Amino acid sequence: MAGTEKIRVLIVDDIAETRENIRKLLQFEGDVEVVGAARTGKEAIDLSTETKPDVVLMDINMPDMDGIAATEAIRKKIPFTQIVILSVQGDPNYMRRAMLAGARDFLTKPPMIDELSAAIHRAGAMAREEKAKAATSTPQSPGGGQPSNLGYQLSRGKIIVVYSPKGGTGNTTIATNLAISLHNDETKVALVDGDLQFGDVAVFLNEQGKNTVIDLAPRAEELDPDIVEEVMVTHAASGLHILAAPSKPEMAEKISGDQFQKLLQYLRQIYSYIIVDTSSYLTDIVLSAMEVADIIILLTTQDIPSIKNSKAFLTLADAFRFNRQRIMFVMNRFDKRISIAPEKVGESLRQEIVTVIPLDERIVVNSVNRGIPFMLDNKSQPIGKSMLGLAELVRERVSKLENIEVEKVEKVEKVGKR
Fold first, then answer.
1. For the chain, how far is it from start to end, CA to CA, in angstroms?
2. Predicted TM-score of the model (pTM)
3. What is the pLDDT of residue 368?
4. Do the Cβ atoms of 98 and 120 come closer than 8 Å?
5. Residue predicted with more confidence, 183 or 2
6. Read out DSSP for 158-195?
């Protein structure tokens, strides 16, 4: 870190010898200061609250609370603190869970001094950036109110990923019209095209601007609201902000999953909702969006291949340890004349279909060809009413998940005070 400012590090491990070995390794790092050591997850939360370290070196296996749960609690209480997970297990599932909980890095024990030092310096630089951002901005709640004092950051915008594992199910139609439904003067919404090779979000809204996601994602670590405002295309009819896919498919290779994820995380500071349209393939970009998504809207239709692929995705989601409460299963193009009922599909896949969007080819095809979302001129029609219903269900699910997170943090805090 610049000047004489040192990177403040907290060591968390239930084995005293390990704590001491790490401390000895770090004593040769002139710009690193060990501000404390904790034996348990609860101690880690308390010491982090007290010392506010830049970096926490967190053991994953501890007797009272595992490192992933402690990571999640610390990140919610002290957002700028970066967590580096240390584990004897190099299991990809542990890595994914750790990153989903907010960890910055994952090292296998015992770490080499070079990789430990590099991880601490990367995390320390990120902590400094986060503190600088917090010092220069006053976060507002999605509805425009004052920030909450609770550990869980209610002021964060919500990332909603719209995904279907089968092409041709109306993913972009749902994403664009959902974004229109959620957007209003008090609730700013960004619509991001996550199908970087062949995305059509801009076409569906008849807004072919020169700027695209390629103008923001590679600069994800140096963004500010002015840069975002300059690049975003404003939809003339609704005021919705659009981030289009690159104009040429080959340009998609210039954006990494990590860059795209950081971009979405930054947009949380500006928008109440970030709606991400995606391709049907589970690319690095799509997976990175899902990892930080508050809600994944999983689309299916009544045809068997679409249902089969939805089942395969749900199985994969379980393997990735995605919380099923974050998945909202929606049936698009519902036709009452077809005998495949949403209730039966939900039962078979152990994931309730929360709503159906009725089939209305005339309105949808006309809407797409004109580049005018049907929520602008057909919201009183059954398909429009169903989309308003989906938007309300999204708001309710976001609120429910927020309440669960708040209760978890409060419970952890109570346990830590005992």
1. 36
2. 0.64
3. 95
4. no
5. 183
6. EEEEEE-SSTTS-HHHHHHHHHHHH--SSS-EEEEE--
